[in-house]
Specification:
Mean pLDDT: 76
Distance between the termini: 92 Å
Number of helices: 3
Oligomer: single chain
Radius of gyration: 28 Å
Largest sheet: none
Order of helices and strands: HHH
Structural class: mainly alpha
Number of strands: 0
Low-confidence stretches: none
Shape: rod-shaped
């Protein structure tokens, strides 16, 4: 048996340990996607549009 064949388990185990350490530390978390903070602006835009539509409807019914 080759020495390289004997070490495959050790290599896999060290990779798994490194992955566990990354998950515990939080270093593996991806950064938030660009534009992820637009949620509040979209809600604001919807509210402003709804307010404008209500004002237009109020003026038409008056």
């Amino acid at each position: 048996m080759d020495l390289q064949d004997d070490n495959w388990y050790l290599d896999r185990e060290s990779e798994e340990d490194a992955e566990r350490r990354r998950q515990r530390s939080g270093a593996g978390d991806p950064p938030p996607p660009p534009g992820a903070d637009w949620d509040w602006s979209i809600k604001l835009l919807v509210l402003v549009c709804a307010a404008v539509l209500m004002l237009v409807a109020w003026r038409l019914l008056k």
